[in-house]
Amino acid sequence: MTEASLYLLQQIINGLTIGSTYALIAIGYTMVYGIIGMINFAHGEIYMIGSYVSFIVITGLLAMGSFALPLVLFIALLVAMLIASTYGWTVERVAYRPLRGSNRLIALISAIGMSIFLQNYVALSQGSRDVALAPLISGSVLELGSLETFEVTLSWMQLLIWVVTLVTMTALTLFISRSRMGRACRACAEDLGMTNLLGIDTNRIISLTFVIGAALAAIAGLLLGLYYGVINPFIGFMAGLKAFTAAVLGGIGSIPGAMLGGLILGVTEALTAAYFPSEYKDVVAFGLLVTILLFRPTGILGKPEVEKV
Amino acid sequence: MAKSFKRFSKTLLAAATALTIAGTAHAETLKIALAGPATGPVAQYGDMQKIGVLAAIENLNANGGINGMDVEGVIYDDACDPKQAVAVANKIVNDGITHVVGHLCSSSTEPASDIYEEEGVLMITAASTSPTITEKGYGMIFRTIGLDSLQGSMASQYILETAKPSKIAVIHDKQQYGEGLATVVRDGLTAAGVEPVMFEGVTAGDKDFSALIAKLQKADVDFIYYGGYHPELGLILRQSAEKGLKAQFMGPEGIVNSDLAKIAGDAVEGVLATAPKAFDQNPENAERVKAIEAKGEDPTGPFVFPAYAAVQIMADTIKAIDSTDAVKMAEYIKANSFDTAIGTVKYDDKGDLTESTFLVYELHSDGSKTPAQ
Question: What stretches pass through the bilayer (chain A) (predicted)?
């Protein structure tokens, strides 16, 4: 392969990695929107909390010693998912459910308030500084090309992000398409009032979507925390914004759309940084969003929908 | 009778209140505001300033204060955010404080300095190195730290004369401090006929630099100057190590921080940085270092002794002119030289130090630094 194509390959690998994590977070936005038509702006903070919990668990377990790394990561993942889900569920109960049925703007403001609350709560309880974790997974799976020209590397960490994302997304897709609860979710997305009339506890289904979204955000929190090794209480804002963009890009309300949107956004960012000055990364990423919304307001995979309001 | 007593009691109360207020005003405490980040991602630098200022204040108070006045440090948090810095500056003015040590980040210091100049507040920054702060020709604004431009030209000189790399990239964080420095370094290199192969910005707060690193690898650079702060450089170093990018990194004093090693681990070893001279290793400061360590604090931060010196300059001036009038003090500071914890300090017309206080250091993964060869 020529140097140019190796370089392109490397940037696509980088883009898919970051895109996978955008997709994981975007699911939370898209599922909630699909069912109750609100944008859960506190979702980015749930991702941040997931990151913090996994850091605390990993540091704790490593300090106790004598655990195998995969076991440590697995426990951290479970605990982070559990705690983040609890937060997701609580946020819905406390900040959104009492406002359901009122003007959408009110719920949106409540979400922004929740986001600020969670951010400051973590900043005060955990300190507002960067928390760092030494690299746990190093080395690369694949090295292509030669050191003299350009070498493509796929690190173990990147592979782990791909695999975990793939497994999670497959599990989610199966759950939504095959299980009873999944069917109830789809029914709620179609017509919440009708589903309620048919005897399905829609409150439970709505809680469930918050819990699933939060659990996926916690997975992304663990993965990105390990990948970058640094977290602070303010990472949720930008990650949330990017994931929200991914969700809108793919068609908000659509789960495959969120996955696709995440990957497209990640690759776009990487390629922009690759061939233009990297400060234009965000300009192009958000420019893409505007363009898509202009020509296809429902996003790439979104269905044109009758206005619900 | 009862009525007249009631009225009288009110007068008494008013008189007592007035006396109490006058009494507090007479208690002769000189308040010095410490403006800088106490929260946020660069709060460490705020701590360094706090350590230096409070140590200097304690030393003054232990020796009878300034002309019999006790000194008190009041902390104001600007979170290194220009908007909040303006609010803080207004609050300081409202609180009637006319002596400020701070702010830290150049982008905060600049808008705040406009307010201090207008309101006649004396400001000495121990950390802001952007040249634009003193370029406006203000009378009330001073520093106890050298300029960006000095640091930048020092870095480009070191690159040209000592490091002599073949391909240089200059990266910055698009902020006033980082981009300002990076521009000076690039111009210094270009002036000597060495053209950097890349000059690019990253977004502050960004976490993923894999695309940038691949680009650096493709350009085959062997020397990277980074203008910015430690959170981004730490991630760039860490991700470069993972991706196998082997290049010498160099940065300004904004990266000199033990957190850099926490983020980047072993990748920090050998990174170069221009930083203020390690004043804590100056034998003349041995007792001050001991006093700071006795409180369980770290005297090694690059801004600790510049902040210490800022308080010394204020105290010496008040002693010399026997007045706390900020405008008169500013005039005196410009006209005289001071013997401080950072050596003899003398100012030019703009309020800049006449002598550079920087050295090139090599950083280590345990968070320490040694002068570079």
Answer: 12-34, 46-65, 71-91, 103-122, 156-176, 205-228, 283-302
pTM: 0.76
> Residue B88 contacts by C-beta under 8 Å, 6 or more apart in sequence?
B35, B76, B77, B78, B103, B112
Q: Token pair of A18, please?
A: 């970051």
Cα separation, A230 vs A225, in Å, equals 6
In angstroms, what separates the C-alpha of A302 from chain B's closest C-alpha?
29
- Where do the domains of chain A lie? 3-129+155-295
pLDDT tens per residue across span B74-94: 999 999 999 999 999 999 999
Whole-angstrom Cα distance, residue A262 to residue A19? 5
Name the nearest CA neighbour of A81 among A50, A40, A56, A107. Answer: A50
Decide if A265 touches B, using CB distance below 8 A: no
One-letter identity of residue A118: L
- What domains can be seen in chain B, in order of their start residue? 28-147+280-356 (3.40.50.2300), 149-276+360-371 (3.40.50.2300)
Quote ipTM for the complex.
0.83
Q: Do A129 and B208 touch (CB under 8 A)?
A: no
Give the residue from B303, B229, B216 showing the smallest Cα distance to B259: B229
Alpha-carbon distance of A191 to A202, in angstroms, equals 10
**Nearest-by-Cβ selection for B259 from A130, A151, A153:** A130
Q: Chain A: nearest CA to B352, how far in angstroms?
A: 31
- pLDDT, one tens digit per residue, over B153-180 is 889 999 999 989 999 999 999 988 899 8
